[in-house]
Amino acid sequence: MQVGQQKFGMQTMNQSLYSLYSKRLAGLEEVMARTSDPEELKQMIAKGGDPNQQAPQPQGRSSRVKY
């Protein structure tokens, strides 16, 4: 978690994009097209949003999600 996120409500662009993606408000292609750090975003998606956690087990995501 980024320093200051909880205290001030700040978040990175990738955190915002991940949030939209995880709520299915934006697709994978859309969020990947808008990120400035695609590798970090891929890692966040693979690990459920927290790059410090292990990747979760697959749980029936949409067929349009490709890692």
Secondary structure blueprint with pairings:
Elements: H1 5-8, H2 13-22, H3 28-34, H4 38-46
Description:
This protein has a domain at about 5-45. The two termini are about 25 Å apart. With about 70 residues, it is mostly helical. Helix 2 (about 15-20) crosses helix 4. It has helices at about 5-10, 15-20, 30-35, 40-45.
Rg from alpha-carbon coordinates: 12 Å
Q: Tally the beta strands.
A: 0
Number of helices: 4
Category by helix and strand content: mainly alpha
Residue runs with pLDDT of under 50 for 5 or more positions:
none
Order of helices and strands: HHHH
Helix content: 40-55%
- What does the largest sheet look like? none
Say what oligomer this is: single chain
Mean pLDDT metric:
80
- Percent of residues in beta strands? under 5%
- The backbone outline, from C-alpha atoms, is globular
Defining traits:
single chain; 67 residues; mainly alpha; 4 helices; globular
Quick overview of this protein structure:
The protein has 67 residues and is mainly alpha-helical.
